[in-house]
Amino acid sequence: MIRNVLESISGIEIYPIISLLIFISFFIFIITWVVKLDKKTVSKLENMPLDDDDQSQISGRK
Fold first, then answer.
1. Is the CB of residue 12 less than 8 Å from the CB of residue 6?
2. Is the distance from CB of 48 to CB of 42 less than 8 angstroms?
3. Residue 21 Cα distances to 5, 45, 60, 62, angstroms
4. How many Å apart are CA 10 and CA 40, to the nearest integer?
5. Number of domains the chain is built from
6. How far apart are CA 24 and CA 16, in angstroms?
7. Across the chain, how many H-helices and E-strands are there?
8. pLDDT, position 17
């Protein structure tokens, strides 16, 4: 039944193409952003979960 409804809509075939282009462009953007990241920023981001200073300020203990 759903297939019959979707086939009756004119121009519906463009939506899967648009969604695929959005999906691919998002991942291309993320890959280029990761490749262009500065080494200093990467080092800061990879140490964030292990940094005790931030955790002590969040929980209120020093």
1. yes
2. no
3. 25, 30, 46, 49
4. 52
5. 1
6. 12
7. 4, 0
8. 94
Residue-wise pLDDT tens digits, 29-61: 999 999 999 999 888 888 888 877 655 555 555
Q: What domain range is 43 assigned to?
A: 2-59
Q: Tell me the two tokens of residue 15.
A: 């939506």
Residue 6 CA to its chain's centroid (Å): 30
Sequence-ordered list of residues with C-beta below 8 angstroms from that of 8, at least 6 positions apart, any chain: none
Q: Which two tokens stand for residue 37?
A: 């990241």
Q: Which residue has the tokens 């981001």?
A: 45
**Residue with more model confidence, 31 or 5:** 31
Cβ(29)–Cβ(23) under 8 Å?
A: no
* CB of 56 closer than 8 Å to CB of 62: yes
Q: How many CA atoms lie within 13 A of 6 on its CB side?
A: 8
